[in-house]
Amino acid sequence: MRVFTLQNSLFFLTIILVSIQFLPLQETNVISSPAEEIFIKNSASTEAKKILNSACYDCHSNQTKRPWFSKIAPFSFWINHHIKEGKERLNFSIWNTYSNKKANHKIEECIEEVEKNKMPLFSYALFHPKAKLTIEEKEELINYFKKMIKSGENDRKQTLEH
């Protein structure tokens, strides 16, 4: 009977790790219309745009910039899963395709996630130090999102008045 030794285990682990490098990884960046972008209908300060781009866009837009280690399995599977899930929940690149009701719900979720320090994810901020939000940056984002809600309410009032 053959006994697995530490050496055999390491050999098989190495074979597995090398083998999974060849599994295809589906990139999640797709081309979307610039007219669907969040900033088209919801103007933002330069600071709010900068914060969204550095802290949110890699997972919540079609403009993902992947770090070098995202090409190495098993990290690639984990990162790709996070990006795919992030875009399914919220995608700023297709914002203007959302209904008013859906957009308002997404805005409320954004405010809650930022206020409760749930976003950006700790694991993301760990490898993207620029994504870690200061108190001022959080306030800037929250104010931007609240402005979007007010703007949406004003648009609805004007529509009802006409």
Give a written overview of the molecule.
The chain is mostly helical and 162 residues long. The chain has one domain. It is built from eight helices and no strands. Helix 3 (46-55) crosses helix 8 (135-161) and helix 6 (100-115) packs antiparallel against helix 8 (135-161). The chain is elongated.
How would a textbook summarize the main sheet?
Answer: none
Number of helices: 8
The level of helicity is 55-70%
Give the helices and strands as they follow along the chain: HHHHHHHH
How many domain modules?
Answer: 1
Report the average pLDDT across residues.
83
TL;DR of this structure?
By secondary structure, the chain is mainly α. The chain is 60% helix and 0% strand. It is built from eight helices and no strands.
Name its key features.
single chain; 162 residues; mainly alpha; 8 helices; disordered C terminus
List the SSEs and their pairings.
Elements: H1 6-20, H2 38-41, H3 46-55, H4 57-60, H5 75-89, H6 100-115, H7 122-127, H8 135-161
